[in-house]
Amino acid sequence: MRCFGHEVVHFLDTESFFNAVLNRRPDAVIMDVQFPHGQTAGTETLTSLKKLTGQPLPAIVLSAHSDFHSRLSAVRAGCSGYFTKPVKPLDLMLAVDELTAPIAEGPLKVLVVDDEPEAAAYHSVLLEEAGMLAHQVHHPTDALAALERFNPDLLLVDMYMPVCSGEELATIIRQQPEYLGLPIIYLSSETDSQKQVSAMAAGVEAFITKPVQPEDLISAVQLRAERLRLLRSLMSRDSMTGLYNHSTTTELISKALAQAHREKSQHAMAMIDIDNFKQVNDIHGHLAGDQVIITLARLLKSRLRLSDIIGRYGGEEFVVLLKGINAEKAAELIDSLRNDFSLVDFHAGDVRFRCTFSAGISSFPEQPSTESLRLNADQALYRAKRQGRNQVVTELANDL
Fold first, then answer.
1. What's phi and psi for 266, nearest 5 deg?
2. Beta strands in 108-236 (DSSP E)
3. Using an 8 Å Cβ cutoff, are 269 and 320 in contact?
4. Is the pLDDT of residue 48 over 50?
5. How far apart are the two ends of the chain, measured CA to CA in Å?
6. Which of 217, 247, 347, 358 is the most exposed place for a label (fewest CB within 10 A)?
């Protein structure tokens, strides 16, 4: 844990841990369940601290026991994770990262389709007061264009509308593969349960009867939209680093370039590859290699902007789309990261070692497509490798 930048204090008994927490609240706790003085003494200590302080500690259980009662005691203590020994250190580190630096998600986005402007405005206000973003569409024929522009987490549709009913609109949307998993909720004054069930055959998640109770609307929307976000995240991100995976990265870059074409803006792409990575695995082991990959991923996430697109392209290779800057500025930024990464001490048992990376930079609109941008950055990366590694090279210059 220390080699990933965490300050770690360990305890052999629950009493000293209890007293230490009262003096200084930790950012995260890794706790065993069983101790010599009790089968669930560890989680009972967490529960006692929760009652005493009025809030649960951000805790993960690491135990040799995986029985139901041990797991139940962890849930009651408010623990967010449960690992059984032996556990991969990287799995544990990633769980701690989620506790100490949770991913900041933007507000949930809801598209409201209702031919009555007053009703659409009322429901939008309820959602916005709960911290969501709502976009209104008053004509079903405008819904598809709004879906593409707004990219909502959930669709709220009036069931009875002229020209096109809510059921027909839901069927049209479900016929498009990219919207198969999009949650849809009907709003209607229909109280006939059989008609409600029939209308949901189009693949709708829920049916809320008008007049709407605000708390029912908000809870229904939040539960389903957050579930979709979680599923999207699992499908689009690399499990080791939390960065976008190859296919999602390519898709996001293509969309960003299409927008840049319309807005006549500039972007830069960086292809980054860890130098001599095979030697790291061969000499220090694959766990050490994973440590290097995750550290570079964390460095990129912490130092680059939320608007930039950062992906793991495969193995030890990463791709970054830096928005709104030219190749020269991008090279300066990536070179600063390269220098900082080269100073990180990695640990493999008692051995310490360091790593470097090489990078190639290309620019848009000089390279007008995703593929040409990537190929150009790859060529620059190969030049960096041939010229000795541990350097950043752009498509326009041999050395930076």
1. -120, 150
2. 109-113, 133-137, 154-158, 184-188, 206-209
3. yes
4. yes
5. 35
6. 247
**What is the number of other CB atoms lying within 10 angstroms of the CB of residue 158?**
23
Tell me the C-alpha distance between 315 and 152, whole Å. 32
Find, among 55, 46, 84, 80, the residue nearest to 68 by Cα: 84
Nearest to residue 322, comparing CAs of 395, 269, 400? 269
Tell me: the pLDDT tens digits for 356-366?
999 999 999 99
DSSP classification of residue 151: -
Nearest to 157 by CA among 207, 223, 224, 229: 207
Instruction: Tell me the pLDDT band of 90, cut-offs 50, 70 and 90.
Output: low
Contact 109, 152 (CB under 8 A): yes
pTM beyond 0.85, yes or no = no
Q: Which residues contact 183 (CB under 8 A, 6 or more apart)?
A: 153, 154, 155, 205, 224, 225, 227, 228
> Average pLDDT, stretch 33-38?
91
Q: Whose CA is closest to 155, among 228, 250, 253, 72? A: 228
CA angle 306, 312, 317 (to 5 degrees): 125
Q: What residues are paired with 38 via a beta bridge?
A: 35
Q: CA-CA distance, 319 to 269, in Å (whole number)? A: 7
d(CA 137, CA 33): 53
The predicted pLDDT at position 244 comes to 92
Q: Which residue has tokens 């990695």?
A: 346
Q: What is the pLDDT of residues 146-166, one digit of tens each?
A: 998 998 989 999 988 888 888
- Picking from 191, 174, 28, the residue whose alpha carbon sits closest to that of residue 100 is 28
Residue 292's CB is within 10 A of a number of other CB atoms, namely 22
Instruction: Estimate the share of the chain in helix, then strand, then coil, as percent rounded to the nearest 5.
Output: 50, 20, 30
pLDDT band at 5 (very low <50, low <70, confident <90, very high): low
Q: How many CB atoms lie within 10 A of CB 324?
A: 14
Reported as a single tens digit per residue, the pLDDT across 233-272 is 777 888 888 899 998 999 899 989 999 998 999 999 999 9
How far is the C-alpha of 116 from the C-alpha of 263, rounded, in Å?
34
| Side chain identity at residue 26, one-letter code | P
- The Cα–Cα gap between 158 and 234 comes to 31
- Tell me how far apart the alpha carbons of residues 362 and 373 are, in angstroms, rounded to a whole number: 6
Phi, psi of 312 (to 5 degrees): -90, 115
